[in-house]
Sequence to fold (378 residues):
Amino acid sequence: MTEKLYYIDSHLMQFTARVRSCTPCKQGYAVVLDKTAFYPEGGGQPGDQGTLGGVPVLDTQEQDGEIVHLCQAPVEAGDLVEGIVDRRRRLHLMQQHSGEHILSGFVHQMTGYDNVGFHMGAACVTIDFNGILTAEQLDELEEQTNRYILENHPVQVLLPKQEELAKLPYRSKKELTGQVRIVEFPGADLCACCGVHVKMTGEIGMVKILSCQKFHEGVRLEILAGEAAFRYLSDCFVQNKAVSGLLSAKQTETAAAAERLCRELAEVKFRAARLEESVFAQKADRLADTGDVLLFEEGLSPDGVRRLTDAVFKTCGGRAAVFSKNETGFFYAIASHEDVRGFVKDMNNALQGRGGGKPNFCQGSVSAAKEQIEAFFK
Ligand SMILES: [Zn+2]
Fold:
């Protein structure tokens, strides 16, 4: 069996070991050592990466009780090699994992809910609980977790005997046999776990709950810890700073300013639509009984084009066609007493257009100049 150096010291990132075997496999080469600081995937925590004798280690897995380093190139069996664990990645994973322990422990203390799912993704960590958490509870849990992190508690690993274990009120996802490894965050969490953790909770830095969605009978939280949480919040800060500048609002008052802006925009849109309606009605009156109409209007939305066409068609007595300029050509709508679809198809072909509709009403856009449209209608 390979000696598990990561259990002796979770911060050991450099070591020398002898290669016990190296065999080709699907991902490259499966290397087994006499001892290793590479943590194999388990308990929701991905396997370590790094180098062995300068050869990249792509992943570390436990296979049939052996710790297998999946290497990009072979190393010589019998050789002594230097192993270097990707420190930054491992610290990131330990921060996420340890942060999850504290939060899950406090959720359990507060509600009795169990952590029933845990996944470390590329973007964030998800934790599933088998009960509903309110916004107020989440605020309190986040504050409690971060206060605990700052208090810098030591993290302990216990290897209790069977009779001692029976007395411990520890969290566990499944029935365990053999020697059970208990991780203790004193006062926060006591949990059976085979993972690697920070030594002091201060190393976690912070935990941020990003979201809480209903999931099965409970909730799924998205969280981030450590440097990843700091980077995420920094990105949010940059965004908020820009919004604050645009809205001339204090950075702590951007939501209220954005809400005001949305309300004003809705009012302006409503007034613009009413003004358009009255302009359209006047135009329709002027064009009453003039027969076929071809209109070019400035700055109408596709919906405005449709409504003006409708209004004119009701009074003109013939076919109504309205065009309004856009970035590449014109939006159009055409209404007719006859089936106009064949005409629109020909027009789309001639004027690089697209669109269609019902027999008596079509709309779309064309990429053509005003003169070309007029020429086609002649
Ligand atoms: Zn753990």
Observations:
- The CA atoms of residues 238 and 366 lie 41 Å apart.
- Residues 43, 97, 101, 183, 193, 195, 197 surround zinc ion (CB under 6 Å).
- The domain at 91-241 is CATH 3.30.980.10 (Threonyl-tRNA Synthetase; Chain A, domain 2).
